[in-house]
Amino acid sequence: MISPTQADRLRIVLVRTRNPLNIGAAARAMSNFGFRRLRVVNPFEVAFREARSAVGAVEVLAKAEEYKTVAEAVADCAQVIGTTAGRHRELKHPLRPLNQAGELVKKHLLSGPVALLFGSEKVGLSSEDLSHCHWLIHIPTQEAHLSMNLGQAVAVCLYELARGATAKRSSKVLKLATAGDAERLTGSLLHALRASGYVKPGSATSTEDKVRRLIRRLNLQPDDAEVLLGMLRQILWQLTQQEK
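Structure (tokenized):
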């Protein structure tokens, strides 16, 4: 079984959820398997209010945290993992089946907070949402019915994490920069790229997603992220001086 400390470090993040039954089912599954940290990003407000009365999940929903953006919701997490059916879209991230992903998630939970993202019922996670992720999980399903109901998907993922042996801490656990650190680095790099003329008109959104994915693939340690951020700030200062 997963340890209480590991369970407390997992953040379940529901992005743009619209159905109160799905929010309630997700919270109920969290309560079933001992997870408490629910975060919602731009939920359909009426659905979120209705879901708060879900039987068996009142405590989880009462303490749920609401955010405007994915970046804010995952800022304290060293690993951000998205969920997707995956087979009918072009993905830019490593994609792991749930049975392999479970053990890796538990290992990351030994060293710090981890966010597990679930998208909206209709379209799942957008390309921008996925750009905040380090890698992705998919639940193996039949080709004729690739996507699962949101509440069921949350329950299946949490069952996989809760079952089996607890991951053991190795003698040396690598601490990684948080998503908030990575996002600050992403912002500074994008600022420098715009100032240098690298970002072309009409390509800003795709460039931002590419840069965000690149920074997360580096899996930087906190000190390295701070050094790179300092370098970029100096470059930006020099570019600013040249414009004067």
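The chain has a mean pLDDT of 86. The longest helix spans residues 222-243.
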